[in-house]
Design goal:
Length: 145
Amino acid sequence: MKHRNLLLTLINDEDENALMRWVGAQPLLDQPEILRELKELLLELSEDEEEALTLAATFDAAVDDYEDKILDEKLAEAQLQIALQAQEKAAQEIDEATKGVRAYVIDCIVTNAPNAAAMRELAEKIMVLEKEQGTFDPANWKPLV
């Protein structure tokens, strides 16, 4: 057992909460293993084997449930990170597409392309929309302003 000596010390500590404080201070993923070690140690120290085995079964179920909840939380954290990364990637793709559209619209106007009038109207609408969204930057439209 990895924590045997420390667990024995904490079990015998005058502070009844020392053991649980120490377990709670350990990384979440390590806690179920520590609790299982504690169970094995308590089984060794128990004088009533039948009662100890009954309590151990209940203890095992509780630790398994606790471990499942920890793993569920870790999975949720990982899924959140993946979702945030996907959101960031999508935002970057939208930003790049927006820059591309802006460059195309400006180029059509500056080169007096056949669709220049329609592009000027579109540029004005885009600038109004950007102002409403608080994303307008005059430098982006410098060739037209």
